[in-house]
Amino acid sequence: MGNPKAFLTIRRKEAGYRPVVDRVYDYSEVEQTLNIEDRKLQASRCMECGVPFCHWACPVGNRQPEWQDLAYRGKWGEAYRVLSQTCDFPEFTGRVCPALCEKSCVLKLHNEPVTIRENEVAIVERAWAEGHVTPRPPKKRTGKKVAVIGSGPAGLAAANRLNQMGHKVTVFEKDEVVGGLLRLGIPDFKLSKRIVERRVNLMQEEGVEFKTGVQVGKDLPISTLVKDFDAVCIAIGAGVPRDLPVEGRDLKGVYFALELLKQQNRVVSGAEIAPKERISAKGKKVLVIGGGDTGSDCVGTSIRQGAASVTQIEIMPQPPEGHNPDTPWPAWPNVLKTSSSHEEGCARRWNLDTLRFIGEKGQVKGVEVERVEWTKGEDGRWQMSRTGEKEVIEADLVLLSMGFVHPAQDDVVAELQLAIDPRKNIRCDDSMRASHKKVFVAGDATTGASLVVRAMASAQKAAENIDRFLR
Question: At residue 212, what are phi and psi to the nearest 5 degrees?
């Protein structure tokens, strides 16, 4: 701990976002960076607590106090070495993780936690710039082959770990590019795709093989992989979106959130989309149903496409601002979150349930909603009641962003007849092994939709157990 009093004399300083008037016209990353001296000062605020709750809260077990001190001292290569021991891709988590570590930082008690997430991405970017991140293929190969299905954060993390352990890893991806939702789901203004491509290129140089455009279970039987490989890791995510089966669902102009986001990510990457297939918010009144991060991404994307207006509604009540006594420190606080996209111009409303979509000549023109109220029952659970207060929100484009329910059931799950849990996620034991002896599972495919960092933690555990199984 280089400066034991820094937290008393140095205030929390965030890099902040590019000005709204600039950023809404492009898809470049909205977050700015601090100069190197300010970043060192922010790292110096870490108190190296006797009980580091930041470490406790981090799913991958990052040792934040250690690399904060190294960053403060300007030892970027060593800081990256310590960071990469627990986090496979800090350039991803440093950009898109909600920073559970910061919410549990002791300084959060004074609402000025250490800028852990920003410090993390600063370390990895400095390490890349200074040449500390170089291909390091394993010195010895085990002769074992592992197939990884899916190249999202879980698939990439599992592949990375297994490759470093000396196994020959082949990753199968159904889309035309590697990265899963990192590549096609998260907008470029939050995570530039050159960042994903940079890491994938490094993994290829280290010996990982990627096969794109191959949907296992349809284009290639999973039974073939089970036969040809010594182990298989399923990391297909929870790709089935929650639908809204109400009147008018089949109207034109009603889409799942990922239909918009995936298409726009492809457009930003240079793909050409036929005009009749193009989903565009230009000049339209956009309604986003669902108040999570994916909904926020739809807001930012719609604004950049030139929407006339954007409204986001949520069935749950508005969380309190700043502090919520129901979720005290060091737990994750359920409080109002305002994203960079919300700041760009979005009407946000809560306690609204969607009743039906209203159309004209087959095109959606409005959405009827009803205000609901929430109360806690004796068992502590929230209970919804209807008020009868209804209204119609005008909308030419409706984006359904209500989360994801479970992995697809009609390919690898069906072919191997894998056991599933009551929520239709792939069931696994404590070693991450599915109901087939050579098949393991990682990430959202077994937990349900969650965070990038939790998917990576799950993949690390799966890789450890696959390695133990193979050896």
Answer: -95, 165
